[in-house]
Amino acid sequence: MRVVLKGIHRVKRKLANGETKVHFYAWRGGPAIEAKPGSPEFVREYNDAHASLRQPRAGTFMTIIAQYKTAPEFTGLATSTRRAYLAYIKLIEEEFGDLPVAALADRRVRGEFKTWRDSFADTPRKADYAWTTLARVMSFAKDRGIIATNPCERGGRLYVADRKDKIWTEQDIAAVLAVASSEIQLALILALWSGQRQGDLLRLPWSAYESPYIRLRQSKGGRRVAMPAGAPLRILLDGTNRRGPLILTNTLGRPWTSDGFRTSWGKACERAGIEGLTFHDLRGTAVVRLAIAGASVPQIAAVTGHSLKDVEAILDAHYLGRDIQLAEAAVLKLEARTKL
Q1: Angle, nearest 10°, between helix axes 61-70 and 124-143?
Q2: InterPro entries annotated for this entry (predicted)?
Q3: 256 CB-near residues (< 8 Å, 6+ apart)
Q4: Alpha-carbon distance 41 to 39, whole Å?
Q5: I want to staple 304 with a disulfide (CB 3.0 to 4.6 A). Which of 81, 103, 195, 200 is the partner?
Q6: Rounded CA gap, 248 and 204, in Å?
């Protein structure tokens, strides 16, 4: 039986006598494997090298990371969140895995961490995610009494999102509905009328809908939301064939994976000629639409599950600014109440 060993690094070197010898390493930059390729000893050396890589040295930052990955603070996260964290944890391990725990008490270590974060400055969002992950691991270590202070607190952000103009217009919505499959159409209308996040909508069961209400618990923050489904959404839901326990399914009637939905959504937007808008922007668009319709901040928050502060922030800075439709609605209300 042939065993395939991943990551083997081969280096050819010419000897003094003119012969060429191939040296094998467990991975690029890893320890050399002295045994004969293909032999049981070769496989054993390879496995031993990788086993030692997985075993954190006592007293190093890697031991903190290993504890964090088995703690409820990590295991209790959503699957997609854990997957995202692991990608950045790997970067942290590669850079700081051998850092002595004692060095975390040195005030200069914050500068080292900041320099590492800034090495991703060309991709500010990646830099911020990397820093956030590092800060969360440090927070875990502080809470467990492993370190006295968190050197990554209040690190600031490099990425500044300006979503002021990222609102789905009626024309944008109509363009996608004209070319999208019925499955994508349902997702769009559900997001537009509920203002919920993609992950929560992909997991939304039919049992959450009892006409005319939709009840759910948001995965982020655990906020419970109960909202009436608007007539267009209610009509669509009532006319949808229930092909499983979840409301949103793919063309095969199976639950969407996050990657599968993202791909199908992207293709629909591409066919519709939509650029610069995301599915998440429908959440902010829902807030704006409710505001334009005359809903108050508390009323909007009751529908979308935002905090009052977040709704105000969306309407004030990130999305609306000085939206002409809101101004028109306000003037119409004033005209209805006074003649002067």
Answers
A1: 90
A2: DNA_brk_join_enz, Integrase-like_cat_sf, Integrase_catalytic, Integrase_recombinase_N, Tyrosine_recombinase_XerCD
A3: 202, 248, 249, 250, 264
A4: 5
A5: 195
A6: 7
CA dihedral 151, 154, 155, 161 (to 10 degrees): 160
3-state helix, strand, coil in the chain (%, to 5): 55, 10, 35
Residues 6+ apart with CB under 8 A from 239: none
Cα–Cα dist 321/314, whole Å: 9
Catalogue the E-assigned strands of the chain.
Answer: 9-14, 20-25, 32-33, 209-210, 213-217, 224-228
- Beta-ladder partners of 224: 217
SS3 of 21, please?
A: strand
Q: Cα–Cα distance between 40 and 286 in angstroms, integer? A: 62
CB 9 within 8 A of CB 24: yes
Per-residue pLDDT, 296: 87
The total number of residues written for the chain in this structure: 340
Given a contact cutoff of 8 angstroms between Cβ atoms, the answer to whether 63 and 140 are in contact is no
Residue 58 is given by DSSP the state: T
Encoded tokens for 91: 């970067």
pLDDT of residue 51 exceeding 80: no
Q: Taking Cα atoms as reference points, which of 201, 206, 177, 179 lies closest to residue 190?
A: 201
Read off the pLDDT band of 79 (50, 70, 90): confident
CA 143 to chain centroid? 24
Q: Is the torsion defined by CA of 12, 14, 15, 19 positive or negative? A: positive
3-state secondary structure of 85: helix
Name the H helices within 150-307: 170-179, 182-194, 198-202, 231-238, 258-272, 281-292, 297-304
Give the dihedral sign, CA 166/172/176/179: negative
- H or E element: which one contains 309? helix 308-313
Contact, 123 vs 91, CB < 8 A?
Answer: no
48-51 contact pairs (CB < 8 A, 24+): 50/26
